[in-house]
């Protein structure tokens, strides 16, 4: 793929402390890429800051969750005819200098979806005990389902091909979708690849995942992915 049109999708909810820095970094490392911030009903200045930075901002009227927010970005990418879409978190955890690692396998046709993994290579990411347990369980379950080893199923740092963009525009899981999306793609015959990336700590705000929510999330997602195996896509 020569000179693909690339869109950076940035889902954001109350990220006024970090969004300006994230946008500046993306513009620096991918000056030719389009950028869309999907503002998921933020009650702070996230949307206003993004608009002042000169990027496209799509506003949800209220908080709809990460699944709906990312899907809004994919709908925009599909309708505007982008060749590659890259998900980048608004909290600063996904360094823009790592995006090219995600894009290259899509450009070469090696994969439809490329996931940035914190656990490949020499990364120093160390999750909490609860997160570590959940990530390990998801990794083993999803790897068995798709018959391919995946190490970071919850990573939201991803690049998608045009085929994948169009699929996600109409088929994307709700709530915490990263794990389910891999199962759905496998069912439809899309190719998935992981590449090692470096990730950073949050630049602002706080994670919505508490230890109690981690257990709830783990149970919920495990049930959801088994349902995904049964339902028609």
Please tag this protein with its features.
233 residues, alpha/beta
Poorly predicted segments: none
Largest sheet: 7 strands, mixed
Strand segment tally: 7
Distance between the ends? 28 Å
Strand line-up across the major sheet: 3-2-1-4-6-5-7
Strand content: 15-25%
Mean pLDDT: 89
Overall radius of gyration: 16 Å
What is the helical fraction, as a range of percent?
40-55%
Order of secondary-structure elements: EHEHEHEHEHEHHEH
Structural class: alpha/beta
What coarse outline follows from CA principal-axis ratios? globular
Number of helices: 8
How does this structure look, described?
The longest helix has 20 residues, at 211-230. This protein has eight helices and seven strands, in the order βαβαβαβαβαβααβα. Helix 2 links the parallel strand 2 (34-40) and strand 3 (56-60). 42% of the residues lie in helices and 15% in strands. The mean pLDDT is 89. The protein is an alpha/beta fold and 233 residues long.
Secondary structure topology:
Layout: E1 6-12, H1 19-29, E2 34-40, H2 46-52, E3 56-60, H3 66-79, E4 84-87, H4 99-107, E5 113-117, H5 129-146, E6 158-160, H6 162-170, H7 178-187, E7 192-196, H8 211-230
Parallel strand pairs: 1-2, 1-4, 2-3, 5-7
Antiparallel strand pairs: 4-6, 5-6
């Amino acid at each position: 793929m020569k000179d693909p049109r690339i869109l950076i999708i940035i889902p954001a909810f109350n990220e006024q402390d970090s969004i300006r820095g994230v946008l500046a970094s993306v513009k620096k490392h991918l000056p030719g890429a389009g950028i869309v911030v999907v503002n998921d009903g933020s009650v702070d200045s996230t949307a206003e800051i993004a608009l002042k930075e000169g990027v496209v901002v799509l506003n949800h009227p209220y908080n709809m969750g990460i699944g709906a927010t990312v899907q809004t970005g994919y709908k925009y990418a599909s309708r505007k005819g982008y060749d590659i879409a890259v998900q980048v978190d608004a909290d600063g955890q996904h360094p823009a200098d790592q995006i090219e690692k995600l894009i290259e396998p899509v450009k070469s046709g090696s994969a439809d979806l490329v996931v940035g993994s914190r656990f490949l290579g020499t990364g120093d990411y160390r999750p909490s005990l609860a997160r570590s347990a959940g990530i390990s369980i998801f990794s083993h379950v999803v790897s068995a389902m798709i018959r391919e080893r995946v190490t970071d199923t919850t990573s939201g740092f991803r690049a998608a091909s045009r085929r994948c963009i169009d699929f996600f525009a109409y088929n994307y899981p709700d709530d915490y979708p990263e794990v389910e999306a891999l199962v759905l793609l496998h069912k439809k015959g899309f190719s998935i690849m992981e590449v090692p990336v470096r990730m950073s700590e949050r630049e602002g705000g706080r994670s919505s995942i508490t230890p109690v929510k981690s257990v709830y999330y783990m149970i919920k997602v495990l049930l959801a992915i088994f349902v995904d195996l049964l339902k028609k896509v």
